[in-house]
Amino acid sequence: MPDSTPDSTPASTPPLTPPLDLAADIVTLTAAICDIASVSGDEATLADAVEAALRTGTALQVERHGNVVVARTDLGRAERVLLAGHLDTVPLTDPPNLPTRLDGDQLWGRGTVDMKGGVAVQLRLAATVAQPRRDVTYVFYDNEEVESSKNGLGHLARSHPHLLAADFAVLLEPTNAQVEGGCKGTLRVEVEVPGKAAHSGRPWAGDNAVHKTGALLTKLAEHQARVVDVDGLTYHEGLSAVGIRGGTAGNVIPDRCVLTVNYRFAPDRSEQEALAFVRDFFAGYPVTVTDSAPGARPGLDRQAARDFIRDLDVPVTAKEGWTDVARFAQFGVPAVNFGPGDPMLAHKEDERVPITQLRDAEAALLRWLG
Amino acid sequence: MPDSTPDSTPASTPPLTPPLDLAADIVTLTAAICDIASVSGDEATLADAVEAALRTGTALQVERHGNVVVARTDLGRAERVLLAGHLDTVPLTDPPNLPTRLDGDQLWGRGTVDMKGGVAVQLRLAATVAQPRRDVTYVFYDNEEVESSKNGLGHLARSHPHLLAADFAVLLEPTNAQVEGGCKGTLRVEVEVPGKAAHSGRPWAGDNAVHKTGALLTKLAEHQARVVDVDGLTYHEGLSAVGIRGGTAGNVIPDRCVLTVNYRFAPDRSEQEALAFVRDFFAGYPVTVTDSAPGARPGLDRQAARDFIRDLDVPVTAKEGWTDVARFAQFGVPAVNFGPGDPMLAHKEDERVPITQLRDAEAALLRWLG
C-alpha cells in the first residue's frame, strides 16, 4: 500500500543492494540483513531495503521517517501490540566480521546477535501474519548503539508519538530467547565531600575530604539493596560507587573528594523517587545529577502480555540492565525484551547466534500473533 | 684569599650589577640581594655577586662550584658549624614584586622571606665575624625551589661532600625567627585495592574496589598518629590520604581503586622503618613507593647546638615540614632551621619581612658565633 505521508522517501529509488526476500527462511534472511552493513549513522541502505521489502512483500501501512521505518496493520482489533528492533550495529571488527558465515548450527558475524536476528524475525512476521489476532506495529529504527540523543526510537517518540501507541511492546533485543520484562531505571550522581586543604606535614591544620569519604563508602558497602517484585517479576536494585577522585598534590590534604554513584532502581520507583532516595542516603552532602533515565514496568498483568507469556512458553525474568523498553514506559506502554542471541556475545568479535534460536523465536512469536 | 680550585669562576669577570656592600646594614643588604632577581635556574648573576663580595670583603676561603658558593674559615677550632641558604626564589608576580620596597617596618618583595633575608644574615656574619669561636662554613646554593634533582646542596653533597662536613648546621630558611629543629621524613605510596569489574546493572557479579577502600579510609581517619620526642623536640606524625582514584565508566563496577598516602614520620624512624609501618598498616594490599625522603634529627644534644639554643634565646620547636636539613642528616650532621620571615608568607604575592626580624636574626647568630 502506497504511503502518503509527506516526509517519506519515494520507493522508486532503486536500491543498490539485492532486495531482501521476506519469503526466505529466517536464517537466510538474517544473513542477508547482516550482510548489508549498517554501523550507527550509516543505516540508510538497510532502511531502504527494509522499507522496499515491506512495501512490496506485505500489505502493511508503511511510513518512513529519516531512517526509521514503521509498518502497521489497521484491522480494528481491540488491542495493538508493537514489535521494535534497531537497524544499526556497533562497528565491524578488523578484519571485518562480515559477510556472515554459517558454521554448523551457528551464524557468525556482526549483527547476528545485536540484533539483526530480531529484525529478521520482525520482517518474517510482517510478511507471514496477514491477519494477526491483535493489530501490530513494526518499528525499525536507527542509532540505538550511540548516544541517546540520536536514538531513532526517541526521535519518533517526539515527532510521531501516535505511531508508538500500543497496549504492549516487544523489543527484539537478544535475550537468549527468554523473556526479560521491563527494565530498571538508572540514576548517576556526583556526591561531593568537602574538606579543608593543608600541607600534609601539618594534616591537623586541614580536614581530609578523602578520609571523610570512607564513611560513605562503608555505608555503600553495607547497604542492602532493595529486591522488589513489580508485576510479578523480581528486580534487584544496585547502589554502587562507579568512580572516585580526590587530591591535588602529593603533599596537600585534599579539600574535596567526589564520589560518582550509579543507582539502578526497580521500575516501581520514578526518577524523582530514585533521586529522593539517593539524596536521603547521602544527606548532608551536595548531590549533583549527571544522568537519569526511568525504568520500565514489565506490565505482565495486561492481557496481551499474559497471552504473550503463555504462547511463548519460555522462561520469564526481570531485565536487570537498561534498554529502550523504558522509552515505551514513558508513554505508559509496558514492554519486554525477547529476541534470539546471547547478550553476552553482543558487540564481541565472535558474535554468533544459534540458528535454532532464530527459528524458535520466529515460531514463538508466530504462535502469539497468528 | 684567592681560590685555587680548578673549577672556580675567575673573579676578574666584571659583574654587570652593582657589587654587594657587606658593610651595609642588614636591611639595605637584604634589599640589594632581593633586587638581583634570581628565579630558580637563573642564579648566576647573584652567585657572581655573592662570590665577589666574599672574595673582596672577607678573609674566608671561597670556592665556586656551578652556582654554589662556599666560604670557610680554617682556624683549627675544635668544632665546625655550617650556615646554609639558597640563592633562588620562586618566580616573580605579575606585575613583578620587585624591586623591594620599604614600607614602615617591613621590607616587601620577592625573596624577602624565602630566603634572601637569611642570605643577607649569612653575608653579614661572614663579613663581621673574623674570629668565630667555632670554624664556620657558609654555603650559598641554587635550585632549592625546584625538583630535588637540581638542588645545588644535593649536587655539592655528591661532588664535594667534604665541604659539608660539620658538627652542626643551621639552614636560614624563614621560621619567624624561632628555631625549628630537624625535620620529619616523608614517604608517599600508592595502595592498590583490587576488585572485579561488572556492569553496574548487575553489581553482584562484580566486586566493588571503591566500596572496599572505605575500610582503609576509615582506618586512616581513626588512626592516632604518633607524637614523638626526639632530642627534646616533639614531632607530630601524619598519615594522610592525599589522593584517590577509581572507576572507568559510569556503568561499570570499579575493578581497582588507588589510594595515594603520604606518611610524614618523626626523625626517630628511618625511611625503611617508615615503609615497614605503612606496609603493615595496609597489610593485604600492594603498596608501591612513589617518593621517599628521610627525616632529620635536631641534634640538640650536641654542644654546638646547646650553645646555639642558649645564645639565641628564642623559642625552639620541631620542624613539621620537610626541608634541606635532611640532606645534612644523611651525613650525620644535625641541623636546624632558623631565619627571619614568616614562612606562611613565602611564595606569596605579599611576601614581606619585618625589619626587626632581620636585625634580631643577625644579632642572635652574632652572639652565638662571635
From TrEMBL, chains A, B:
GO terms for biological process: L-arginine biosynthetic process; lysine biosynthetic process via diaminopimelate. InterPro entries: ArgE/DapE_CS, Bact_exopeptidase_dim_dom, Peptidase_M20, Peptidase_M20_dimer, Peptidase_M20A, Succinyl-DAP_deSuclase_DapE. The keyword Zinc applies. One of its GO terms (molecular function) is succinyl-diaminopimelate desuccinylase activity. Its cofactor is Zn(2+). Residues 184-280 form the Peptidase M20 dimerisation domain. Its EC number is 3.5.1.18. NCBIfam families: dapE-gram_pos (TIGR01900). This is Succinyl-diaminopimelate desuccinylase. It comes from Kineosphaera limosa NBRC 100340. The gene is dapE.
